[in-house]
Amino acid sequence: MSKLYPVIGLEIHVELNTASKMFCQCSANYFGKKPNSNTCPVCLGLPGALPVPNKLALEYTIMIAQALNCNINKKTKFDRKHYFYPDLPKGYQISQYDEPVGVSGFLEVDIKEADGYVTKKFGITRVHIEEDTGKLSHIDNDTLVDFNRSSVPLVEIVTEPDFESSVDVKFFLEELHSIIKTLNVSDANMEKGSMRMEPNISLSIYADIKTRKNNLPNYKVEVKNINSFNFAKKAIDYEIKRQTEILESNSIPQQETRGYNEETGKTFSQRKKENAMDYRYFPDPDIPEIEFSPEYILSVKTQIPELPGNKKKRFVNSYKLKEDDARIISKDHNLSLFFEEVLRELKFHTNPKTPQILANCIVNKKIPLNLNKEEFLKKFNELQKPKETDINSLNSAISLVFKTNEAQLKQYREGKTTLLAFFIGQVLKELKGKADPVIVKAELIKKLAQ
Amino acid sequence: MSLLGKSITQLIKDLKDKKVSKSEIFEYFFARSKKYNSILNSYVTLCSKQSTSVDGLLSGVPLAIKDNFCTKNIKTTASSFILKDFIAPYESTVTQKLKQAGAVFLGKTNMDAWAHGSSTETSDFGPTKNPWDTDRAPGGSSGGSAAAVSAYLAPGAIGSETAGSIRQPASWCGVVGLKPTYARVSRYGVIAMGSSFDCPGPMTQTVEDSALLLQIIAGHDKYDATSSDEPVPDYKKQMLEKRKFTIGLPEEYMVGLDNDVQQKVLESITVLEKMGHRIKKVSLLDPKYSISVYTILQRAEVSSNLARYDGVRYGLDRLHFGAEAKKRIMLGTYTLSHGYYDALYKKAQKVKTLIINDLKRVFSEVDIIVAPPTPITAIKLKEFEKYPFFGETMDKLNEAAAVAGTPAISIPCGLDSASLPVGLQFMGNYFQEGTLLNIAYQFEKETNFFNVIYEGQKKYE
């Protein structure tokens, strides 16, 4: 059997953190509230109720689409997507069909592979806004419905099937998560459900990427109920393995929706999807079409803060940080703000090495990050002072370390000189850090040579 | 003092002059409503107690409200079993405005269930009878409201029109019915039938009353994203202006009429000419084209709007839909289905644009269009079952304005040889309700509607 290449596309839902729901004035902050205490005629689908779109939610959607390099449609509208389910009060979801807010975008992500990081570009098919449904809970033979979540604004991001591995997906999700947090438009918490992800997975026989994209497999499997980035990776890996076994036995995997079981780490069959469901989309007559002027679209773009990708590049160029350190710090919005705040206090331009030194402290957790700026600076400045080294304590410490590590001492003297770092560490530990590492190193080299 | 036949405007004056009290007025209409409801079945729900009335333009005025308007504390059923026990926890914008103006509600009037029909016979609570001949239908879907005003069970009422549901029963019951421009009056709280067509509107004995009620209910509503922010003018002022109009008579609308209807309409046109208005022959798209456009678009929207009645959160489940509702849901679903959407729904939208442009063209030549609102007078009960698309066929003369969203008014213009009311309609351009009220008011002052209103009330002394 020839090699098989995974073809993975993602559908991601992000719950916005607007004050109100998407089509009514109920609070969008529903988490933990008493069931059905956060509802109104509109989000309950009462007779006669009408939807009025949330302007801020639309704006956030444009922002997300722009952060993903999409073209923003000048005209957008809402469509009714019909299906019956107890958590869907109107019997249709107000969504967007053929005129979504954003289309044809992309996201470049640094993926850590065996030999280091490689930058990959993943296509974003579309970004649109819709309303969330209520929530079902199953207790014994009963099913309960809570409509607190009904009509909360939900941004849907659909990617091209550009992902070739679960590793691709994991790094992409982390970058996307970072962007969403930087924009501050959502909690984006997968455990709480404010960010949801469903991969579509199939396997192709084509090695060449272009051929693969132009000849997509004739089936795809959707996996639901994935509650963290780690589970996403596990689910995808399992699914690839499962499909490989089927294909290698000359069968085709069933086109279906599968669920992911966290405990077993396996996917299981949920719903057969032979044909696409007919949602009978048509433009919602209750909501007039919306037009965005070029000026407005531009004004939204200017509100977008510096995104992690650009921040990383700037950290490398302006601060001369190592790329790995720049990546770690820039990925975390709050951390990168803190980093630059501290740098400003340190008047870092007087010493070009300061940013990297600071980065080391942060990345290697030499100083706890839960300190406020003043306490942090104090500790940082302490670390920079050359340590007073008491020679007697140093010599005692070295003797003790040599006594308790005879095996390593022997190995060193036999030629394993890389153990020098080990000895430095042990001596510093013994001295509780109260020594200048440079002096410790010099003294050790002397004593080891004896 | 007998209150019989007093208009809303007159009642307000009598209240102000302290000739009568609010409770006296309410008791009077409640007693009449209770007495005649067993014969006419005008009301689904009668309110025995007068609710608190605040001071306002309509202070103390009792009104009958069509049962598709959500009213807090009073059942709202849309004349369907599914909602037979439903009490809305919120108030529709229209009834809220009326309440804020001081109006009180006598009750909720019968209608075709879900507004599906033109005779009030698809109601799950029995048909309403035409006060002029109780073997006949009052028209629909606002039949209960039209009958209530005609028999003077209420001095005025609120109805709604998707295509003809105000004008046609007004015509068959001999009262004044106004369909405002789409989006002129908020739909928030009105049980949706055809979302891009539904228009709440007043049904009254006089044009002045119609202007008064419209003044109260018109205007932008933040709870209805489609409602227009076009400023609301002083309708009474516009109604009273001394104006002479160029009135278009479309020959396509004078075809296939009952002889009596044709005669009465032509007589009315002669009256208009004598009054100094210029009648001009115009040509409009044949009304038959509106039928398919309206049927497809309306039923598609109906099938979607009824999806929420699943019995999970309120009401009974969909097994309790009546036959007409089921038919419309099936057909509507079909037109939205994959493979049929383009050929049916999308195409109908395109033809809708043609109808709109056609009307706009004629309104560039004339101020108003005059026509009959229905080709026939009230039919006998159960006759409607003969026609598979009864509602839409019956309303073909009303559908152009419904599809385009332009305003129109139906007024009585005489009786036919069976002593049944004949209606006359005026159609206007967008937001030209003032113009329509003006010509209707002039006609009323000139003819007193040929005593139709008076004759109708006499039957229920």
End-to-end C-alpha gap of chain A? 62 Å
Strand portion of chain B, in percent? Answer: 5-15%
Beta-strand segment tally of chain B: 11
In terms of structural class, how would the helical and strand content of chain A be classed? alpha+beta
Q: Of all protein chain pairs, which has the greatest interface, and how many residues does each chain bring to it?
A: A-B, 30 and 41 residues
**Ranges of chain B with pLDDT <50 over ≥5 residues?**
none
Average pLDDT rating of chain B: 96
Question: Per DSSP, what share of the residues of chain A sits in E-state strands of 2 or more residues?
Answer: 15-25%
Please provide the ordered H/E string of secondary-structure elements of chain B: HHEEHEHEHEEHHEHEHHHEHHEEHH
Oligomerization status of the protein chains: heterodimer
The overall strand count of chain A is: 16
Main pleated-sheet profile of chain A: 9 strands, mixed
Low-confidence stretches of chain A: none
Describe what you observe in this structure.
The complex is a heterodimer of chains A (450) and B (461). Chain A has 450 residues and is an alpha+beta fold. Chain A is built from 15 helices and 16 strands. In chain A, strands 2-6-7-10-1-11-12-13-14 form a 9-stranded mixed sheet. In chain A, helix 14 crosses helix 15 (437-449). The mean pLDDT of chain A is 91. Helices cover 38% and strands 13% of the residues of chain B. The two termini of chain B are 14 Å apart. The model of chain B has no long low-confidence stretch (mean pLDDT 96). The interface between A and B is large, with 30 and 41 residues.
List the helices and strands and how they pair.
The complex is a heterodimer of chains A (450) and B (461).
Chain A: E1 5-15, H1 41-44, H2 55-67, E2 71-72, E3 75-76, E4 79-82, E5 92-95, E6 102-113, E7 116-131, E8 135-139, E9 142-146, E10 153-159, H3 166-183, E11 195-204, H4 209-214, E12 221-224, H5 229-248, E13 256-261, E14 266-272, E15 282-283, E16 290-291, H6 294-302, H7 308-319, H8 323-331, H9 333-345, H10 354-363, H11 373-384, H12 391-404, H13 406-413, H14 420-430, H15 437-449
Parallel strand pairs in A: 12-13
Antiparallel strand pairs in A: 1-10, 1-11, 2-6, 3-16, 4-5, 4-15, 6-7, 7-10, 8-9, 11-12, 13-14
Helix pairs in contact in A: 3-5, 7-8, 8-10, 12-14, 14-15
Chain B: H1 8-16, H2 22-40, E1 43-46, E2 62-66, H3 93-100, E3 104-109, H4 143-150, E4 156-161, H5 167-173, E5 176-179, E6 199-204, H6 207-217, H7 235-240, E7 246-250, H8 259-274, E8 278-282, H9 287-305, H10 323-336, H11 342-363, E9 368-371, H12 390-394, H13 396-404, E10 408-415, E11 421-427, H14 433-447, H15 452-458
Parallel strand pairs in B: 2-3, 2-4, 7-8, 7-9
Antiparallel strand pairs in B: 1-3, 4-6, 5-6, 5-10, 9-11, 10-11
Helix pairs in contact in B: 4-5, 6-14, 9-10, 9-11, 9-13, 11-13
